[in-house]
Amino acid sequence: MTTTSADTGPTRRERQRQATYDEIVDVARQLLRGGSEVSLRAVATEMGLTPPALYRYVDGAAALNALVTRQIFVDVVAAMAVARDEHPQDDPAAQIVAAATAFRAWALGNHAEFRMVFASPPTPGDDRHEHSFPLLAGADECAEGESLFTDFFGELFYRLWEQRHFPAPSRDQLEPGVVTRWESAGESPKADLVRLFGDDGVGVLWLFELAWARLYGIVTLEVFGHMDPQLTSSGALFRATILEIGTSLGMADDWERLRVIAGYPGDQA
Amino acid sequence: MTTTSADTGPTRRERQRQATYDEIVDVARQLLRGGSEVSLRAVATEMGLTPPALYRYVDGAAALNALVTRQIFVDVVAAMAVARDEHPQDDPAAQIVAAATAFRAWALGNHAEFRMVFASPPTPGDDRHEHSFPLLAGADECAEGESLFTDFFGELFYRLWEQRHFPAPSRDQLEPGVVTRWESAGESPKADLVRLFGDDGVGVLWLFELAWARLYGIVTLEVFGHMDPQLTSSGALFRATILEIGTSLGMADDWERLRVIAGYPGDQA
DNA sequence: GCATAACTGTGAAGGGTGTTCACAGGAGTT
DNA sequence: AACTCCTGTGAACACCCTTCACAGTTATGC
Fold it and tell me: Which residues does the UniProt record annotate as the domain HTH-type transcriptional regulator MT1864/Rv1816-like C-terminal (chains A, B) (predicted)?
């Protein structure tokens, strides 16, 4: 018997394998949260295995790293999705603010993990496919971690744009280099986006990049402890930044309402 | 003979010691720039020593790390000072833009080193004095690396404010938590600054923090490769950010002139 | 059912790293 | 000259990653 159940279900061994696969990542993240370093050895020992055994699943320490990183990305996006879905679908402004706030909260709450994914930049080409073993979970969700982010916010951003058509800079207000590169990129995802946004595509995409940079920037600074701890803990700096982002995205009118979502200590519910 | 020269000059041994001390940091940074890891062992070997010998100078790998970090900070600030002094003292706007641009350029050009100092957060109290051996260079310049930065920009910022008195938010436009904390901080450096800026002290300091966060944020993102490489290499994103910062600091009128300093590919000299 | 193949784990071994310690030899002091 | 401090070494221990030959189990095929 190859399949335990009906047709093409995963064989017993495959399930087994997947289970330990997951356990590896789990244990690694557990160690991370516990303040320890993620060493192949530590993970193995924690699982009751010898280090070489892990090589049956993961192709070395770097690959394990990549694996954990990817899973963390998935988790963060999941947390953001939850926050987003607490607001109605026809209110993308609230959804964006909520997601961004959840992003920051996750990052601050899961410090070590966030630092890890941030410290390892978008894998400069060397281990792009090394960490994807044949039986790895969903082969379809093998996308780079960062793109999960941009996809997530991209969708929200698009809906916001559809609804509000906030003013974007025109082609000639932008630096020429950026415009030509994006428009002439042919089939790149960037070019697709530009087309999607229609006439002022470049301008809208530009705003998106700016907004994304600001959000990522502020969260990073806060998590890495490079800002005044008071400003971080109170969240004032974050809210101010979010306000700036929101303003550039035509949310200024709504701010009384939105800032509460961003954690403003108002007396509303 | 204890002193080689006249009175209280450093003894021969002390000079010797200081020399190898410096060499350690030098070699470490050399390795860093060469793409290698900074290992105690590697540094020792490179110097023709055995690893344990380094313990006569540096209290372990972490301390060496801190030492290198500190020196890097000093270098960055020096580079910024050079850029600043290329503009007249009575033009703080140009000086600020030049310094910020130099900061970014240094960070992008010295990648590995910048990443290192950024990855190690403001030493959470554990190794604050451990790495300062008795004979360490100038005991007076033992200030934390980050404070070198804020001091540097703080001075520029103050001159800019003196000159332009750009509009700052008033007390009641800020979140209450921030205001009270800064004003009631007594003898803290923050409180001093608030007083220095007079009536709207809190508002000005707030703008300073915002500007600093933005600059640090964008540079970090670029260096860590978390932004579109095209936007980074062209510098467009950086200039856009600097423009925003400048605008919030009353430099908008001057921008035609200032953006060239920030690397705008204009046809001016 | 039994041989064969595939998978999963172990132990040993080699190459890194940081760190401590006892000890030797030179530099400076008295 | 005797003594003290400084500087460096070698050995040893504790981690780490990684490869390899080998054993045990599990599934597959004849």
Answer: 97-242
Q: Is the CB of A51 under 7 A from strand D?
A: yes
Closest CA relative to residue B27, chosen from B5, B8, B48? B48
Say how many residues make up chain A. 269
CB A178 within 8 A of CB B230: yes
Q: Which chain C nucleotides are covered by protein, judged by CB under 7 A? A: 7-12, 16-22, 27-29
* Cα B236 to chain centroid, rounded: 23
B136 CA vs C27 C1’ separation (Å) = 21
pTM of the model: 0.87
Mean pLDDT of A134-157: 63
Mean pLDDT of A110-136: 59
Which tens digit of pLDDT belongs to each residue from A19-50?
Answer: 999 999 999 999 999 999 999 999 999 999 99
Which nucleotide is nearest, taking the CA of residue A3 and each C1'?
Answer: D27
* Closest alpha carbon to A71 in A138, A16, A163, A17: A138
Rounded Cα–Cα distance for residues B59 and B70 (Å): 15
Beta strands in chain A (DSSP E): none
From the Cβ of A188, is strand D under 7 Å away? no
Instruction: Establish if A177 touches chain B: CB-CB under 8 angstroms.
Output: yes
> Which contacts qualify for B18-27: CB closer than 8 Å, 24 or more apart?
B18/B135, B18/B137, B20/B47, B20/B57, B21/B57, B21/B133, B21/B135, B21/B136, B21/B137, B22/B137, B23/B47, B24/B54, B24/B57, B24/B58, B24/B64, B24/B67, B25/B67, B25/B68, B25/B71
